[in-house]
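Quick review question:
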């Protein structure tokens, strides 16, 4: 089989990418499709010191991956995630933190015909700036219930008019612009990240940090409660378990009138109270002297 010829300039690019693929612990596939040049420049600046983004032709990326996998087995797992207009991002940052950073730095933009919606499009109930006219029937064509109040059109209830993954039509794009809804997200689309032989997809990396901490805290509380109820002592619960055991043993001793250094006062006080109550009952009993 004749080996494909690679021009010197392209071979240099392949070698450069192969070196980066081996050197950096985390390699991420990024889709640059519909990424404005101005915003890409801003994003590169914000990532300076955190990550390196490099683009080249898909064919050269595949050649670089094929070359790098001899020194870094498993790196070929990133290849199926080279989607759209692919680029590679090289970093030493935690991939989850990096994904969250890129997600927070995305901006909203109007939808254009042909765009694929990244999320459901919700039209919320409330007043609009529209005066009564053909717009009522246009809203109705999307299943949006509307009415007129104080000379303006009011949307009566929330309505999802398009689902995530749908392709935007000319009619939908026009309506979204009129409703001032910007469903598109402009920013680096991190598709997947490779680390220690494992591929993390965006569905795995898309974590709400605050909710994650809350879930871990709740799990720790449940584990603590379970260990205490099961009587499983460890360094985290032993102090609480000893306090609980002492409290319960004292309560039992008092209830059963068991004399100990800790309960003698309470037991004698209880006995004295019972004796006084009995004496009072006897002294007021009918026929008593």
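Suggested answer, residue by residue:
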């Amino acid at each position: 089989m004749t080996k494909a010829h690679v021009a010197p300039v392209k071979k240099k690019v392949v070698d450069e990418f192969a070196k980066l693929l081996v050197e950096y612990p985390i390699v991420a596939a990024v889709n640059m499709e519909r990424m404005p040049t101005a915003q890409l420049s801003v994003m590169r600046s914000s990532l300076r010191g955190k990550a390196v983004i490099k683009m080249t032709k898909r064919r050269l990326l595949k050649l670089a991956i094929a070359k790098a996998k001899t020194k870094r087995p498993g790196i070929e797992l990133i290849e199926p995630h080279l989607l759209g207009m692919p680029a590679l991002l090289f970093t030493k940052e935690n991939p989850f933190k990096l994904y969250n950073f890129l997600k927070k730095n995305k901006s909203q933009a109007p939808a254009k015909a042909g765009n694929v919606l990244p999320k459901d499009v919700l039209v919320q109930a409330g007043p609009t700036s529209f005066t009564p006219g053909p717009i009522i029937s246009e809203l109705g064509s999307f299943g949006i219930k509307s009415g007129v109040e104080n000379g303006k059109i009011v949307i009566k209830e929330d309505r999802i008019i398009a689902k995530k993954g749908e392709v935007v039509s000319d009619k939908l794009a026009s309506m979204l612009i009129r409703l001032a809804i910007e469903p598109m997200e402009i920013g680096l689309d991190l598709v997947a990240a490779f680390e220690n032989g494992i591929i993390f997809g965006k569905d795995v990396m898309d974590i709400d940090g605050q909710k994650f901490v809350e879930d871990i805290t709740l799990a720790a509380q449940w584990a603590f409660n379970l260990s205490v109820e099961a009587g499983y002592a460890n360094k985290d619960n032993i102090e609480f378990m000893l306090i609980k055991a002492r409290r319960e043993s004292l309560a039992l001793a008092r209830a059963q009138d068991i004399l100990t250094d800790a309960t003698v006062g309470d037991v004698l006080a209880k006995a004295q109270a019972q004796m006084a109550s009995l004496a009072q009952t006897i002294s007021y009993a009918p026929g008593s002297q």
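Why it works: The chain has a mean pLDDT of 86. Residues 220 and 226 are 10 Å apart (CA to CA).
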